[in-house]
Structures are given as structure tokens and as C-alpha cells.
Amino acid sequence: MAGHHGTAVVAGHHGMAVGRADHVSYYAGSRAPAAWPLRVGTVPAAARCFRARPALDDPHGPLVGTAGTGKTQQAAHLARRAWDEGGLDLLVWVPAGDRESVLAGYAQALAELTGSDTAAPEQAAQAFLARLRADAGEPRPRWLIVLDGVAHPDDLRGLWPPDHPGGRTLVTTRRRDIARPGPVRAAVPVGGFTPAEATTYLREVLAEGGREAGAEEAEALAHELGLLPLALAQAAAQLVREDLDCTAYLGLLRQPGGRTLAELVPGPGALPDGQHFGVHEAWLPSCERADLLAPGGLVRPLMELAALLPDGGAPASVLARPAALRHLERHRTAPSPDGTAPRPEEVTAALRVLELLGLIDCPASDPHRSVRMHPVLRRVTREQVPAHRAGALAWSLASALAQAADRHRDDAAFGPVLVACAGELLRHAGTELWTHPLTGRTTAPRRDASSAAISAFFGGEPPLGVHPLLFRVGEFLGGTDRAGAARDHFERLADEALRRQGPGSEVVDGARERAAHWRGEAGDPAGAAAGYTAILGEQIRRIGPEHLGTLATRAALGRWRARAGDPGGAAAVYAELVALQERHFGPAYPEAFENRALLAGWRGESGDAYGAAVAYQALLDDLLRLPAASPGAVATRPNRSDVFAAHFGHAHWRGRAGDPAGAAVSLGHLLAEQTRVLGPGHADTLATGRERERWARYAGGE
């Protein structure tokens, strides 16, 4: 047997084969069989500063991963190691991008083994596989067949090397459905480097090029490039070429509207390690195949939406909401097979294709983060969106997220996902969310009002001049026990609106109102009251004291003054509010009755028990004089709870004003009515009974 570091020349009368440690060149013609051990095909040379990954050292299934993760380099490392350790008699490296390439590789291997050629590739391939089978009837060498870059399962139909005690097959592919016949062998996922591997690799490659990089700056750049080996190798080459350091290069990557990734990697003639394409081109073959597998032209616009999602991903349902479907319909690259608009099930099918080809990840373990795209692919996809479509794309995704928030309104686990999605959208398309892309005006559809509180504040209208998603995010933060984060979000939103739109903007007012609210919920009711006081002054000056927004602010101010321990201040606010509501809407305005009850209660809490009793009596009389009131109507009135509450309040403050006997008598009448209407076991009936007994004891001198 010839040593594996030598060169074997086998000559025949019609041709020859030249075998070296890393390559065997084949020249057609009859000749003597090659000597053992034998290598066929070119094993890629190791990349600079190649880093072996122990977790991938003994794969029992295909090496599967997206573009640029180093699958080929890992397979080449395993092949070289097995050869150098003397563990192989036959090593065949086959570029397997299509079936014809596989057939050609097998035919070449057969020619080297037998010294004879055949004009039929399929026949040659089957003859080669037959020689690898355990029942071939001749000495069976130890072999390794590497099928690099398998693009489609059909390309290996009938061409899988056989199971063999001394043989092994290693496959690299982006496809997740590549599986050989026979016992199931789980795919071995090949992701990017770990953070430590990426940082070390980047520093070593730069050092080899004569540049030093600190650990922190190298780590930051590695994370920005998604820990992708291909991206790191090309970035390092560009750093050396342009005499940049990691921090400067990172700044170029992050600069809004700056250079694209295609401009930040070397050109074709300067790519490192014999690479043939820039990282920005690495996914093109998979995208083209996805277009073929998912009819209807949904792949590209779907990827555009997904490219604005965060690293952690988002629910697939976001991409099937009406706003997302409208985007897909407007920008699909081919007509629908049946001529209809995209349907959610078509989106699901297209996502399956994208996952199948390694363009996205859809982990079933987390339905809230079930669509993920590699950071570099996201960047490349965003950079390919024409500038005139960027605004509509961002607005569409924001609307889809808002619609998804409606769907997940009662799902606390969706809150962090929504916040992350909105944050990523703002990072890459923040400007686009301040002007409606279809109208060119800073208006938002009424149906997108972000919350009941916001609608009340704006008198039923949403804030103008920003996508309502930004308000929805703050409400989700607060609604998931993150009041401090909600406060901070709205304060930043108010500052941004002030910078973009100036004072007087409804967005400024709305954001400040919500910031004040969540400041109070975060434990600072006095701060909330101060915030509402400032907002109220601005509103009175600009839109008048009787505007619905101004009235809503007064009501909120009263609540927060009360929660801050200022019942007198709360009563003063409610007194002004009731007067304005009755003057503007009339004395029978329902909210005026509610606020009269609050006014009476806080008047009592501020020390005026008699005034509270009088106010409750007046409220009770007015409630009973409402249209349709009649003897016994209390039992059927829709607002009987208001009547009962006013009656209870009057009796309570009558007792606290010094008339416990009168309070007990009044509560007795209320108890009889509640027993008849609500039943003896109702919580309100029982509370009234306890209150009556308390005042009866006081009246009896106990």
C-alpha cells in the first residue's frame, strides 16, 4: 500500500490517474486500478485558524445547518483526520449539489478503483455502490464517502452508500428532510460558533493578518454577525484589507442608512479561504429553491416580514394576520395558483418550506417564538427591500403585531414577545412608524386604538402621528406587572414625539398621560398626580376645559390624588369635574353620577362627614328621580347598584357625622330592599347587614 502522503501515478495505454493526499485527478481511458489507500475528489483545505468543534466530532446523521455555519469545513476536518490516522482505505469526496454531480463523483471513484471507464453515469454509480456492499465478494476496504452540499432528497434516490461495518457516509446539507433509507439517523444540527469560539476565532484570524483585537470588541462584532463562521471570516478579511478595527467596522454595520453588508465584505477576487461568494449571497440558492417549492410567490415578501422580527423570534400567527396577508398580496412575486388572495394556511405552508431549506427556524417547543431567522440573513433581506417600500413593510408588520396583540390579549406570555418585536422594529424601521406610508399623513386608523384608556384620553380617537403599536407595547408592559418598564417606555415615546412633532402633539400628550399612569402603578402615586396636573394645565390651555380628553385627565388626577393620600385634593378635582360634566352633558350624564359618588366619598374622607352624607342623599334623590323611576322600580332599574351604593354611602356618613341611630334605621330599609332584590346571601346584602349591626351597637351605647 502506498503511503497517504505520497503521490501515486498509475499509467495505462489510454490514460492515467494521479493521486495525492488531497486530490485525485482523473484522465479518461483504460488503465491499471489505483493503489490503496485511495482518495478520490478534492477535500477542501482547512480554513485559516480552523476551529474543530468537539460536539460535531462523531456525527451519526447528516450535518444540517443554514448557509455559512461551517458544515463543509467540519466534514473536511473529519475526513482529513480519519485519513491521517490511517483509518481509511478509501476516501471519496463528492460535491453533491445535484444528482449529476453525485453520479459524476461515483463514476470517477469507480474508474479509479477498476481502471476502466463507462459512458453511462447511472450504471457506473450503481457499480461503484455494489463494490461498497458487504456482499461484494472481494476484500472490503474501510471507506468514507462524503456527500457535500446535498440540495434535494431526490438527488440521492438510489444513490445512498450501503450500510457497511467498515464504511461510513457523511452528508452535509441545508435541507432538514435529508434522510437515508433504513434506520432513522437523527440530523446533527450545525449552528454558528459559541460566543467564546467566535471571539477566539476572530481574534486569531485578525492576529494572523497583523491586526490585534480586544476580547470585548471582538465579542461585540461576533454577536452582531450572528456568530456565523462565514460572516466572521469575510469580516476579518475586510478589516485587514481596509485597515479597520472591530469597533469601527461594528459602527459601519450599525450605522442607519450606511453601507450594506455586500459593501462590507471583500469582492469575489479577495474572499478568504477559497470562498466563491460573499456572505450576502450565501442564501440565494435556497431562496430560489424555496420559490419553486412554495408556489404563489409568497416566499420573498414573507421573508421581508420575518427579517424585521427579533433574534428570539415571534409567533407564526403574526405573519398570518390580515395586515401581513395584505402585504403578501401586494408584493407576491408570482400569481396565486388559484387566483385568490393569500390565506393563513398558505403562509403556514410557505413557512414550512423556508424551514425545510434552512432559511428560518420554527422550534415547536415555544409557540410564541416559532419563527426565527438568522441575524445575517435578516440583515441581507432588509437591505434588499427597495427604499420606497420600506415604510409600507414596517407599517404592515406593526399592524400585524397589533392585531396579534388583540388575539393574545389575555395571554401574559405574549407580552414580552410583543415588546421584543416592537423593539426590533423600532431599531431597524423606527422612522417609518411615524408617518402612514399609504397616505403620507401622520394619522392612524381608528380601529387600531391601543387601549380603552387611550381611547378615553383622546375622546374615542387614537393618537395621531405614530403607529398605535407603540402605545400597545407600553400597555402590555404594564399589564404584565412591569409598570416601571411601561413608565419608561412612555417617557421615551413622549420625548421622541416631542423631538419629531413638537409641543402640542397628541402623541406627546398621550404618551405623557400613560407615563403618568404607569408611574403611579409603579409605586409613585404622588408623581402620577403631579404628571396629570401638568398635562391638565396644557390641555386646558390648548383644547379647553370641557374637551373629552381634558375631562378624562381630571378623572385620572382625582384618582391619583386620592391614592397619594390627598382626599381633599381629590374631592376638589371631582367637584370641578362634576360641574363641567353637568354643564356640558346635562345633570343626567351617567359619568357625572359616578363622579358625584366619588366626590361625596372623598369629601367625607377629608373630614367633612356631614357634607358627605348630604351629598350622598342628594345623589340618591337624583338617581330615584331619573326617568322611569316609580315605586318599586329600584328592583328592576339597570342602575340599581348605583342606587344601593348611594343609599349605603349616605347611611355610612350619616353615622360618622354623629347620627348612628339614623344610620341604623336607613341601613335597615336598604337591607330589606337588597334582601328582596339580591337575596339574603348576596355579598352586598351581607355587607349592609354587618354595617347596620355596627351602627345599631353605637346607637345603643355599646
Shape: elongated
**How many DSSP-defined strands?**
9
Judged by helices, strands and strand pairing, the structural class is mainly alpha
Side by side, the strands of the main sheet go: 4-6-7-8-5-9
Radius of gyration: 37 Å
Tally of separate helices: 26
Q: Ranges with pLDDT <50 over ≥5 residues?
A: 1-28, 440-462, 629-638
What does this structure look like?
Helix content is 52%, strand content 6%. By secondary structure, it is mostly helical. The strands form two sheets. Strands 4-6-7-8-5-9 form a six-stranded parallel sheet, sandwiched between helices. The relative contact order is 0.04. The N terminus is likely disordered.
What's the topology here?
Blueprint: E1 8-11, E2 16-19, E3 24-26, E4 38-40, E5 63-64, H1 71-84, E6 90-95, H2 99-114, H3 121-132, E7 143-150, E8 167-173, E9 188-189, H4 195-208, H5 215-224, H6 229-242, H7 246-254, H8 284-293, H9 299-306, H10 322-331, H11 344-356, H12 375-383, H13 387-407, H14 414-429, H15 452-457, H16 469-479, H17 483-501, H18 506-521, H19 525-543, H20 548-563, H21 567-585, H22 590-605, H23 609-624, H24 640-656, H25 660-677, H26 683-699
Parallel strand pairs: 4-6, 5-8, 5-9, 6-7, 7-8
Antiparallel strand pairs: 1-2, 2-3
Helix pairs in contact: 2-3, 4-5, 4-6, 5-7, 9-10, 10-13, 13-14, 14-16, 16-17, 16-18, 17-18, 18-19, 19-20, 20-21, 21-22, 22-23, 22-24, 23-24, 24-25, 25-26
